[in-house]
């Protein structure tokens, strides 16, 4: 990579992950600073987003940077046939960093190979969502006091869920035990199971989802069935409500267990769970601000020492 991009969580060592988490902790203490004064952040969203775009833009604004970008590719010259490469080359003339979400797997890597400025992958198809994973790790550490040796139960669309794929790769440094719960139509792809085997990550798979499955989890990571990835919406209709977490299913849960979800939620967590002390998904989303402040600083060459010294 020609620049300091964040394309895949798999590229980061355990030490680099912990370093970014330490930066996030500094921003949780004090989110408003002028450390990116004079910088310009471009947010190019070729797919819809609420949290990722708004938290990156909030992060930029709270650090004194300015923001340009688009939320709908239909209003850009890509509709006239402009290539992704040309779009990136143009925007890099204006911005110091490009945060990009794209529907094609590999789009962020491709952009990083042609871009003179850092690219931050805000999600590329079903492939990766590294900034989500960093806020997931931050939340796991915040709620469990550690990242090592945790039981993590991941439920839902494991085939298309990019947050799942990134989280598995990041956790390889921390000796997790995974339970993968999915309908038979949406299993974890073989490449990620091979990844687990290569990295000696303990995992089991099942279709059953009930209070016994949850009982030994430290983290219950719920996911949405990714409607936008289905070519046949009849297939989506068959699986969309296959798992619904209800409050009455939490009776055997460990006291420390927290329910995470990258959001948006559709039906997979019943509303009555929101008031349960195990629910943590809204706090998790809030952590996105601190970690995205950390990511923007990191790709722009600002260090943890710079942040600690910033008064
Ligand atoms: N978690 C997440 O990526 O949410 P958005 O699609 O709203 O950005």
Tell me what the structure shows.
The chain contains 11 helices and 9 strands. The chain folds into 2 domains: about 10-130 and about 290-310, Aspartate/ornithine carbamoyltransferase (Rossmann fold); about 130-285, Rossmann fold. The chain has helices spanning about 15-30, 50-60, 85-90, 105-115, 130-145, 160-170, 190-200, 210-215, 235-240, 280-300, 305-310, and strands spanning about 40-45, 65-70, 95-100, 120-125, 150-155, 175-180, 200-205, 220, 260. It has about 300 residues and is an alpha/beta fold. The protein has a 5-stranded parallel sheet. The structure holds phosphoric acid mono(formamide)ester. The site of phosphoric acid mono(formamide)ester has 9 residues, from α2. Phosphoric acid mono(formamide)ester binds near residues 51, 132 and 263.
Strand order of the largest sheet: 7-6-5-8-9
What is the averaged pLDDT score? 96
CATH class of the largest domain: Alpha Beta
Q: Could you tell me how far the N terminus lies from the C terminus, measured between alpha carbons in angstroms?
A: 33 Å
Strand percentage, roughly? Answer: 5-15%
The main pleated sheet reads as: 5 strands, parallel
Number of H- or I-type helical stretches: 11
Sum up the overall morphology in one term: globular
Predict the CATH topology of the largest domain. Answer: Rossmann fold
Order of helices and strands: HEHEHEHEHEHEHEHEHEHH
The tally of beta strands, per DSSP, is 9
CATH superfamily of the largest domain: Aspartate/ornithine carbamoyltransferase
